[in-house]
Fold this sequence. Notes:
mainly alpha, 27 helices, 77% helix, Growth Hormone, Chain: A
Amino acid sequence: MARDPEDQGAVGPAAAHEPAPPREPTAFRRRAHDAAWVSTTYFGEGFPYSVVNNIPEILFTALGAPLGLIGLTSLFHLPWNLKFLWAPFLDQYETKRRWLLAIEVALCAVGVVLALAAGAGSLGLVTAAFLVMAVLSATHDIAIDGFYLEALDTRDQAGFVGFRAMAYKLANLLARGPMLVLAGAVGWGWGFGAAAGVLGLLLGVHLVLLPRREVPKRPVGELGRALLAPTALVGLALLGVLALVEWQLAPARRAWQWLDEAGVAPALRAVPVTGWVAGGHVLALLVAFLLRRRIRARAARSAYASAFVSFMEQPKALAILAFVLTFRAGESFLQKMKSPFFLKELDVGIDAYGFVNGTLGVIASLAGTLVGGWLIARHGLRRWVWPFVLAQNVLHVLYVLLALRAADGDTGLGAITAVITVEHLGEGLGSAVFMTYLLRCCQPAHKAAHMAILTALMSVGFTVAGSVSGFLAEALGYPAYFAFTFVVSIPGMLLLFAIPHLDAPPRTPRAA
């Protein structure tokens, strides 16, 4: 097993009289070490994400912000939809480990600023801190996913899927539970101070735990010149246009007035800005596919462009694109209407629903992801893909039966608990399939960029489902709507016959 050059000792005749080097760790110790850093990095991925995307509306309400400004907190999610624009830079400069640690230092600093701003009740400074934390957190995700792909071989990437999901969900629970309880008890400043402390603890752990298994790329000092390239400037211009459209600032008002007169503006406003970003992402990839021969020569001279072109040049790229867009469609529609169905239609108490869905359901989902990841790592994705995908989607029929029983007034908490728990188990098994498959679609030269492209695509289904799910449920009624959630999952299942990468590539040796 190769050693990191930074850790190698002396070589030559003199070395013969030196003590023997330490023995390589056993397979068990190495796997335990990998499980530790995988868990802590994905906890570190989920925690700032939850702070940025679950806390602002509560804090803004407490600080007396107007409803319009509270609604605009949804824009804090924008960096996650746009991260594919700067993901290629993390593949081209330094190592993912160094990116990860540097971003965690910055996250700690922003966490301290956020704590001070929240404690002082400064809404403007709080908003700026959240925006910076959102960009850092989205970039942190790119570094973590890229490091995971660099540091583990294909077998272990599948085997640790369950650890990733477990750590991410625990981070979400910490941010939305104990952190909010602390903020409510002693103040927002102390609550965000504790969050900064968690980020600092993660930084210390990662300085010790993260292995050195990457070859450094170009020095980060060259990045400044790359940021002045035309593609980077176009990306910045796109951000400015999106801001103008979303906030309807003066330069955009005349355009909106014209669209109002044409009767188009109301439909455009119904689509959130993240929806337009997601649609633009898909369109850009399709253009890259259609013009791939024409732009291949330019891509060869630009590592940034080659990240996108290489993704669309892999075998059956359009099938991969369609699969990623549709695989979680049924689950996306189901998740949006579960809470209204149980809380309003079945009159389940918030405390009971929180326990069943947020405790038993989470445990079942984690169990499904852990078991699914272990079985896929042991026997391969192709053997388990159909059982796990069917478990994810066919179990939606249980909601149809529950809705029909509700119409007859014949539902109890026992049946509700069983349906939620079993459905979460199926969702966990489906997640094991999906996360494993995404890893296989990332080419070695552009691992971080390709993972960012894929994970940004995942948001399209959730965006579409969120914008139309309520209208569909009202029009169809819950029994038919839940049947619809199964129907929309069928295209994703049929695409299993067309997509590549279901058979694992040869196991690649990894540098130690």
